[in-house]
Amino acid sequence: MMERTVRMEMPIFYALLLFMIIATIIAVETKNLLSSVICIGAIGFGASLMFLFLRAPDIAITQIVVEVLGLVILIRATISRDRTFITGDREFFGVVVSVVVVLVIFLAGIKVLETLPPFGTAVFAETAGAASQTYVREGLEKTGAANLVASVILDYRAYDTLGEATVLFTSIIGATVILRRKSRKLLEEPDI
User: Fold this and answer.
1) Which of 181, 184, 183, 177 minimizes the C-alpha distance to 69?
2) Do 64 and 150 share a domain, yes or no?
3) How many CB atoms lie within 10 A of CB 104?
4) Cα(23)–Cα(97) distance, rounded to whole angstroms?
């Protein structure tokens, strides 16, 4: 059954990979900075969908948080540097590509939701060799922690937790530095 599920998901993997490659090429080749930032955001959200397909929701959530904060920082930096004005004339090709990109992301998200198990299903409890079973059986004995959650977070997955916390704190500090109201620039310095 697992092999059949993997075979069914392979075209979706290839479609997401192709989508991310196309977005990468557009991000590198476009002359408009804001379009490049939007394509980078599409790449990041495609990566988070890939993590969901690979059954790693914690990494997908971290990717989305970092992606949103990164996009806020990049859009803020782009708007201050790129002074493009929107006119009434829109390129037909650009509108069509934008609609197609949004539609592909929407359909990939719906496909991800279809592949997830029903809400409330304890998937790890049904799998005999799952790491969660080892945590439950041997967690308190091996770690000496006060409770099972602390043993998992601080002993079994300590480096993972440290990495996720570092990424989140770095993103928050970066967003705070970029989005602060007053800069530390001296008043007599001219704007560039």
Assistant:
1) 177
2) no
3) 18
4) 11
pTM of the model: 0.49
Q: Is 49 part of a structural domain of the chain?
A: yes
Type of residue found at 20: M
Residue 190 lies in a domain: no
Q: Diameter of the chain by CA atoms?
A: 70
Residue-wise pLDDT for 69-128, tens only, equals: 888 887 777 776 656 555 555 567 777 777 888 888 888 878 877 777 776 677 676 667
Instruction: Pull the structure tokens for residue 151.
Output: 């043993």
For the chain, the three-class secondary structure string (H helix, E strand, C coil) is: CHHHHHHHHHHHHHHHHHHHHHHHHHHHHCCCHHHHHHHHHHHHHHHHHHHHHCCCHHHHHHHHHHHHHHHHHHHHHHHHHCCCCCCCCCCHHHHHHHHHHHHHHHHHHHHHHHHCCCCCCCHHHHCCCCHHHHHHHHHHHHHCCCCHHHHHHHHHCHHHHHHHHHHHHHHHHHHHHHHCCCCCCCCCCCCC
CB 20 within 8 A of CB 46: yes
Contact 44, 150 (CB under 8 A): no
Distance CA 37, CA 82 (A): 12
Residues 44 and 27 in one domain: yes
